[in-house]
Amino acid sequence: MEPITRKNSGKLVWLWRSLGSVRLAVVLLILLVIDLSLAYFSINGRSIIFEPMNQVGIWPWLNTYAMANLRYTAWFFIFLVLLSALVLNTLVCTTDRLWKLLRQRKEQKSNKRFFFALSTHTMHLGMVVILIGYLISYTMSQVYPSLTLIPQKETIVAGTNLRVKLTSMTLPIYEGKRLETFTGMVISPSVQLRVATPATERTASLGFNNPVYFQGYTFFLQRFSPTKNANMSNAHYIVIDVRRDPGVLFYFVGISFFLGGLLCYVIFWIRSRQPRRVPS
Amino acid sequence: MVPFLAAVTSGQLLFLAQLIYALSLGLALLKQNNALTFWVMTLGAVLNGFALAWHYWHSWPMMPMYIGLPALLFCLAVIWLIGFHQRLADSGRIENLIIQGLIVFLGLITLLFPKDFYLPFLRSATIWSHIFLITGIMAKALLLMAAIKALLFLIYRHNKKITSRQGLASAMPWAISGFVCLTLSMFSGEVWSYLGWGTPVVWHDPAITTVMAIWFYWIALLHLHYTRSWNEAQRAIFMMIGGLLVILFACHPDMGPFRLPFKELF
Amino acid sequence: MNRLVKTISLIVSVTFFLVACDDAEKTVKKAFLQIGEFTITKVNNDLTLIRDGAGRTLALAPREAPTPEGYEPHMIVRTPVKKVVAYGSFDVATLRVLGVLEETLVGVTSPKEKWFVDDVKNGMESGKIVYLGTSNAIDFERLKQQQPELVLTWDPSIIPMLNDLGIACVITSTPVAMCLNARMSFVKFLAPFFERQKEADEFFERVRSSLADIKERTAGMWPKPEVMWGDMYEKRVLVEPGNAWIGELIVLTQSGYLFEDVYGASCIEISMERFLYSGKDADIYFTYRTPQNGATSKAALAKLNPLMASIKPLGSEGKVYSPLPHYSQSGDKLDEIFTELSAIMHPDLYPGYELRYFQSLPETDPPKEINLHE
Description:
Chain A contains eight helices and eight strands. Chain A is α+β, with helices and mostly antiparallel strands. Chain A folds into two domains: about 10-105, no CATH class; about 140-245, Tick-borne Encephalitis virus Glycoprotein, domain 1 (Sandwich), CATH 2.60.98. Chain C is α/β, with parallel strands linked by helices. Chain C folds into two domains: about 35-195, Nitrogenase molybdenum iron protein domain (Rossmann fold), CATH 3.40.50.1980; about 220-360, Rossmann fold, CATH 3.40.50. In chain C, strands 11, 12, 13, 14, 15, 16 and 17 form a seven-stranded mixed sheet that branches. Chains A and B meet through helix 2, helix 7 and helix 8 of A and helix 7 and helix 8 of B.
């Protein structure tokens, strides 16, 4: 590959190439590793500084929790800068190479080579889409945290036209002996939730890892009570989080892209390693 | 066998497994009968496997907490056993010894710094948490194997007759399969995080950043490999540092306070 | 030369960054205060936002200020609050610190005979403070009659009912245990509700100086006593994690806390094996049980749970302490409690100290007197 200098290229071209260089990518990745290693020690035992980010969103969080605890959150500011640079680098690099690849498509005799190269670009684009999804999630999500519901009482989600009602609760007590510390406790709660707007309604089952989707809103079970046999006389209630997160679709699409690319990559990589048949 | 397994605890099984792993290493160092070394190692892996099964039995459908280190040992032992005869044929005794040494080292950390006293939590009763855990552990074992291969390359690179087993290219299948597993672990963790908490990242566990760090590091390595921008020795060193990073980040989050095994019995 | 310039610039940049960080932290802390999982954000003179232990946001506005926009009526609290209901004894103690207990407290969830705080007992006698029923059977009619403007509770199940009644509610418990600083600063969290920031600051300073005294007294103490705090209930083990104020305080008193590495909620459940293992190293053991709950002697505790008999403090070499019934209601005397804990760890440093909040358990229960007339 011919070295790129300012003499033989315009400044813009030089900048474009530099932005998309693999060397820059490697430098950024190594810096990210260092930053994330520091992050581990900053978060350890201090998760209460970081957890509110999921509720208040990234900008309010940066202005409050992050700024008030800079010695533990400085890594996050650096992380954002590095991640942004990596996204830019990946976009430029992928655009550049993908363009070249598509232009040379007709000249290429081997399909295998083409799809092999395409699979890596798919992964790159997948990663960019995932990160865009994260950004959307953390900037544009609407979160209604800790909504308490008691049986048969309708509650309005503040600031929306949503009405939620806990229609029934199933709290099976674990009676077995295998999970010794859970004997007499509820380990698989299931509740029926009725969610409605003035126009439509839906009844669905809600549980841990089993959210309810309705009109762009998602309902997540956060807590429930009573949790054990001995406390069955306590008040029955659940606490839910209601979220409207337009970023989710992006990061799941990004994940699919990445995994699709990775799968193609692995298939071609395995096939390229198989010894070629020698004609007898 | 069943009454025996019902009576012992996972800690006791692991202790026995570690003793047997160490014995197997001793036999290998003394160049004892290869078959004996193999079968002793097999016994260690079986006991290690039973210790893991014990944890799963007492947690399922939830995810057992902090079993990363004993599971990593098990994965490395299985890798060692699968490739044992092939390595012998290819005079890979040093490779066998390095893997065994690593197993014994990690086993010592597992025994002396256990952290398995946290109880499983309800939100982990989903298939995603198990995929996240299992693929994550497999990824670490595979990436460690890549680092071991890189170390072997550095040891043998000046030999005139370097075998394919000793070349740096032999590390790449491990690195790529490790990266694939790590990616699966990260993405299944992300799906779990969304379904369980409704957020893309859960900040409760700081180990999330260590997984991301390892992932970025090995992406850098793959880029270096495909662009050939560094020479083989430099890439091998980079890979070895990656292995150390995996050891550090596999151990530290899973280490509890120092504890002498079986002290409570005396 | 070039390298030297680069190094110097790097050092200057890092120093500048750290100084800038420190300045930025101070600036933000004036408007935003984080107390464990609680926060206070002063938006302007007419609006302060608070985030409670459950992550809910409430708007505090002075009585004469315009109604804040974008908040449901039950999420708006007019300050200073004139009538309050409190579930937890620590909340009641905090009201006492702020000097508002007598004038504002109108309802509690423990009957009169369970109270050791004179102000509460007197208030209940005069009828100003009302017993609203146990926390799982609140009499909402009585609560409504008391017309509180605010309810301080750990129980979210009452929120829907309170919303209907238009009463604001603050969750004062948190999912992660309160650290030492949060425990001391909790008073600053409740202060804006009653416009009593000055009293909160004074209390915080008092507790802080007691901590400074403890730190000075215990500096360099060796050997460090090993301490554990928790209990066994049949097959369950609950302990105070290292991030809880108790764990942090014990470490601060030059003692070893055997669950320092455990992180999580207050009264976190861990495996029995770990409890028994740590028990082998412990010199001092604090049980959650009061004498009324069976913690009358070491033998009594061992009888309640025979497995526990193997831990060192239950033998003749160790010490076991149990909280006295009024301990949980003495949150306004944190400085005294801290000092007492320090005195328990290092009795030599506090000669003649008499315990007021804890009692040391004897080896066995005293023999029961037999009434010969019966």
